[in-house]
Amino acid sequence: MNEDWSAGYVVETGYTYGAYPELNPVRAALPLLLKGLRAPRIETACELGFGQGCSAAVHAATQADVEWWGCDFAPAQAVFARDLVAASGARAHFFDDAFDEFAERPGLPDFDYVALHGVWSWVNDEARAKIVSFLRRRLKPGGLVYISYNAQPGWALAGPLRHLMKRHAETLGAPGLGPAANLEAALSTMQRFFAEDPVYSRINPGVTDRLEAVMRQDRAYLVHEYMNRDWHPMWFADVEARLSAAKLAFAASAYMSDHVDALNLSPGMIGFLQGLPDPSLRETFRDFAVQAQFRRDYWLRGASSLAPADQGRLLRDQRVVLVRPASQRPSHARGTFAEMALSGPVIDAIYDQLADGAPRTLGELEAGLPPGADFSALTASLVMLISQNAVQPAQAAPAAARASETARALNLELARRAAKASDLGFLAAPVTGGAINATRFHQLFWLAMRDGGGPAEWARFAAEVLARQGQALVADGVALAPEAGLAALEAQASAFADTVLPCWRGLGIA
Ligand SMILES: C[S@@+](CC[C@H](N)C(=O)[O-])C[C@H]1O[C@@H](n2cnc3c(N)ncnc32)[C@H](O)[C@@H]1O
């Protein structure tokens, strides 16, 4: 343990290498505009507690007009983030500062946008106060904050599981074994315990399913989720009270599925919530209605309401793009209350226009709507497609064009690293200004494409990479012989060329 600087935060186990689309400020305008709020123009942005910095590096490489800053006090993670962004050639300022040190850094600008993902619930009150103080001092008036956190009442049932894990590790764990091994031992004891049918799980039957789900999760994630000294799921009203000290007011959920009430709430519940006169109380009751466990929200310092005409104009200027091939169009969207079919003339019209991969404005999509469909039907359908990660907001064309070189350089680095490992499962898309999920083989095909050739050559390249690593393709748990492995890769490369590649062209990746 590095008690002096880590304040009980698990730093022995490096954080996972995910890039999180919710952190992308390009995505913020649409949910804010849908609520009738002005979205700030973002020129300076920062991420607090960036982990391995994958999201921050992608954002710096794909948002040429934004100056990106960030900090994470774990030095190995800050080094990883710096190396990644340096490979892109983008200008970015990443440091291994704690939040309070970062606030004092000479040359630090004031920010239009500050993001924290997976930080707020896992630090102590002192660190949370430093975050609030940072926001108070460094966020510009009109600025936007994205914060995610573990929410109540969603953890009321499973919170005690975390208590058992932590107590087991504190009493029987050996510091020398490290948090991952101590967690494993705790989980094994807990499995034996719950097999004995304690009263706790008899009156809370969901808890054993929850433990089974935990057993299947990535261990690095679990260590960071549960093994920190601090773990504080919070009520919305608590978060609101703390952020009000930084002059922040709740603006909108960053989770697009939350914007479709019919997906998450019964008609009676929608009516009940609408009848509550206080917006904050409404959020609290809504958290009970959906059993909220994790909230991802935007907060504004000085929310500014738009006149309906301005709202309509700005919405119509917003661009969107397909991020999943049209052939992989989702059939349904599922929320906490209902499942809704993603079909019908409006969704068909959206796909007809976006299928070539090029981004379109909502105004352009509106012009292609079938007779009788109005703009609100278009926005509702788009919100559902965005919630299913089929479509995403796109940044302005000139900004995307200016980022093409740095995004390409970052992708080269990511694909080269994919030759050795599979933990960086994303590429940078200049059109969305963010990350797009990419499998290791797709990354390798993309790398091979640079030398020309077609699917057969790309498959051979991927096969050579695997052979150099002493790895083989596995089907049904059995390692394939080299010829069968090559044939399987060729099939994958052909499917990639037919479906994924057109989409990646639209995203500016290929
Ligand atoms: C759960 S991780 C989330 C990382 C990243 N935001 C992500 O979502 O991938 C929380 C991060 O906050 C960092 N952190 C915790 N307390 C901090 C502090 N006081 N100052 C700076 N970073 C801190 C940790 O090192 C860790 O990388």
Structural summary, described in words:
The chain is 49% helix and 14% strand. The two termini are 44 Å apart. With 510 residues, the chain is α/β, with parallel strands linked by helices. Helix 7 (159-172) crosses helix 8 and helix 23 packs across helix 24 (482-506). The protein has helices at residues 3-6, 29-34, 54-62, 75-88, 99-103, 125-138, 159-172, 178-195, 199-203, 206-215, 219-226, 236-244, 261-264, 267-274, 279-289, 308-317, 345-354, 362-367, 375-387, 397-402, 404-418, 440-449, 455-468, 482-506; strands at residues 44-48, 67-71, 92-95, 111-116, 139-150, 249-253, 294-300, 319-322, 332-334, 339-341, 360-361, 391-394, 426-429, 434-437, 474-475, 478-479. It has four domains: 3-153 and 231-300, Rossmann fold, CATH 3.40.50.150; 159-226, no CATH class; 318-398, Alpha-Beta Complex (Outer Surface Protein A, domain 3), CATH 3.90.930; 403-506, no CATH class. A seven-stranded mixed sheet has the order 3-2-1-4-5-7-6. Strands 11-8-12 form a three-stranded antiparallel sheet. The longest helix is centred in the last third of the chain and has 25 residues, at 482-506. The mean pLDDT is 94. S-adenosylmethionine binds next to loops.
